[in-house]
Amino acid sequence: MTFTELRNFLESHDDYVIITHRNPDGDTVGSGFALWNILKNMGKRAKVVNCEPFPARYDFLYEGYSAPEFEPETIIAVDIADERLFGEELMGYAGKVDVCIDHHISNKYFAKETIVDGKASSATLILYRFVRETGLPINDIIAKCIYTGLATDTGCFKFENTTPEAHIAAAELMAYNIDFANVNRRMFDIKSRGRMKVEAAVKTNMEHLFGGKCAMICVTRQLMEETGVDPAEFDGLASIPLESEEAIIGITMKELEKGGFKLSVRTTDKADASAFCRQFGGGGHIRAAGCEIAGSYEEVRGAVTKAVGELFGE
Amino acid sequence: MTFTELRNFLESHDDYVIITHRNPDGDTVGSGFALWNILKNMGKRAKVVNCEPFPARYDFLYEGYSAPEFEPETIIAVDIADERLFGEELMGYAGKVDVCIDHHISNKYFAKETIVDGKASSATLILYRFVRETGLPINDIIAKCIYTGLATDTGCFKFENTTPEAHIAAAELMAYNIDFANVNRRMFDIKSRGRMKVEAAVKTNMEHLFGGKCAMICVTRQLMEETGVDPAEFDGLASIPLESEEAIIGITMKELEKGGFKLSVRTTDKADASAFCRQFGGGGHIRAAGCEIAGSYEEVRGAVTKAVGELFGE
Q1: Distance separating alpha carbons of residues B116 and A21, to the nearest angstrom
Q2: What is the chain B residue with the closest CA to A203?
Q3: Which of A38, A91, A216, B1 has the fewest CB atoms within 10 Å, measured from its CB?
Q4: Measured between alpha carbons, how far is B236 from B250 in angstroms, rounded to an integer?
Q5: In chain B, where are the structural domains located?
Q6: Is A56 on the interface with B (CB under 8 A)?
Q7: pTM of the full predicted structure?
Q8: Which CATH architecture has domain B3-189?
Q9: Contact A244 B164 (CB under 8 A)
Q10: Which CATH architecture describes the domain A194-311?
Q11: pLDDT digits (tens, 9 = 90+) for A242-274
């Protein structure tokens, strides 16, 4: 589907449901509300849905948002590579998506029409190309949504996936009132007190193995209870071990409620996270992968450090 | 001095000393070695100096750097607003600087010629304008130096001082082999084990006052001794308190060797750090200021919390 065809499609349909992915991030929320505003400007009815309520930190993206009651007719998925990411509550939409707009190379082409570019830094960047190429109007809130997705997915233009196009889009979006410094403060700097406590705890307990080439943190049920912090604050710690200066592989072990551990593995360009996790039946990307391992803390830690030793030929 | 005049000046002189500021950061080091490479390409002798050795984290900016022995003839200062920032060891150059290239609005015009733009996101961005406008050649290392200064001073395009020009320059510099993701990892993500320990300790001890509107950390001599970490790792903690989600004012109290405390104050757009510090005989910028207060921990903490209470009308 070309952008012109997408514009024609959007103009000739109505009553849109825009699906965003579970564990919502700035790119899926930004894409959802950018599209909602685009549709609103076309005079269409639309709502943005997620399998859970959006975290409050994204509320600046849906100021002034409201959705009238209507019978869904047209279903769009944004920043979603796989229907499994709808979350259980929205599984009723599986098999019914009309258009998917995404930037994951792993997209499963589950929708009737898919607009995907694995080289785009964010899904919002694809929406930006769409509005620019088809001459649709951009306003402050659309610009802010697009910028937020772009900043979120590139780690504020820090990661390898940042392209010249991403920088140029950011420069152009600054012509609108997007208050990007506050967006970035909300996306990258601000932490709840609970989160700060959690990060301090795991950094205090971080292990440095093999001369520091492997940094490992472990979140046990006991630690979660001791800190007395909402369990959700223990999500997304995986990037922390690799902050250690000598680390090549960073491992986050998180004890599961059902027993056993979930491993999140991150690597620099000197190791393959995906290959590492495949040994344990997991997988993922070359720099970020995961797996689950059954067993006690001692058993899992033993198996993991053995595998790390083999990785370094030690 | 126009850029054309600067080019003529550089071409008609030789034996350059390029001064970078004390407590060197990515912008002064990036500016220094960008200029060194520009001069090298002109066939000139030059060296980059600092009052102390450059920290190892910047070594990728001076790979292949060497300076022959020569009698200094032409003195350039980069990213330096005031001669006091030369550091004691380089004070002999005070009053002798031929050209200062800087982006601080507070520049003291201490050099014979000053090229300053307070709106430029970094000093390297001014050098970028210079090479672009005068048609001087850019190579990978010059591009990397310019990018590093730009990324450092904008917090990787995160802060208010990021301009559309900064993004466009970044996009253009990506045409060179600058390995920006590794530059950013080095500048923003990687921490020594000691630093990680220090941050964990201050986050564990962080106080949240006035319903969280004030977040405060305190680095006592005792804490410094207990952690057993190089005292230098305790520098630059000032941005941490403001990571707390409700904080409007973030205060870092650091006990001085001579007794008393150095305060570093950071504020969101809802408070004036400079006005706060002026009460204690200090000063600075509206969002970042400092002061020194004599007294014991209890005395200083008392005076500070009283002043914070007044700020909030409590």
Answers
A1: 47
A2: B200
A3: A91
A4: 13
A5: 3-189, 194-311
A6: no
A7: 0.88
A8: Alpha-Beta Complex (3.90)
A9: no
A10: Roll (3.10)
A11: 999 899 999 999 999 999 999 999 998 899 999
